[in-house]
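Hey team,

Filing this mostly as a record. A colleague (T.K.) asked me to run one chain through the structure pipeline before their review meeting, and I want the input and output archived in the tracker in case anyone asks later how it was produced. No errors, nothing strange. Just documentation.

Input sequence:
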Amino acid sequence: MTIKTFTFNPFQENTYLIFDESKEALLIDAGCISENEKMLLKTFIDTNKLFLKRVINTHLHLDHQFGNKFLFDNYGIAPEACKEDDFLLDNVIAQARSFGFRVEEEAQPLGRYISDNQLIKFGNSTLLSIHVPGHSPGSMAFYSEDDGILISGDVLFQGSIGRTDLPRGDYATLILSITKKLLPLPDSTVIYCGHGPTTTIGNEKKYNPYL
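Output structure:
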């Protein structure tokens, strides 16, 4: 399994393109907003002759779903996310304006929902979905036991955790999600965060001041 990281938009959000030897690919959190960012992503997919099979979201805050419509328009693939975050697709133009972004089109509707403990398959690879609410009610993490990786979205960062002051966020729920569902994973598990560098479960158990 190969993970290509793109860091997009002014929030420095991490977009992950994951593919294997089959050349089938999965895109997690399409944060590309500018034309240059969109073309950078598309050029990589096309140049490497990848077959984009699914577009999924850890959650639906603006900075993680800016590029969903672009991918739908170019590859015909509707995004997938947890139903609990569906409300975040409403009034995206107004939401973006409140953060100083100029967005011309409303959000791309979801094609289907992702639930807890669901297998996300592409090529010869599989990720397991883990519902970890708190940062948003529909926050999901995606785990591969075989490859020892976790895509955590904005739930868990190196030395930090996701903010809980956004709509329907909850601090106690977030801490419970992390301690009950993520920290029991093997210490060697590499965490690919929604922002910032990678870390490991073991490192966060030892050094994260919030945990």
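Quick notes for T.K.: The mean pLDDT is 95. The longest strand covers residues 2-8.
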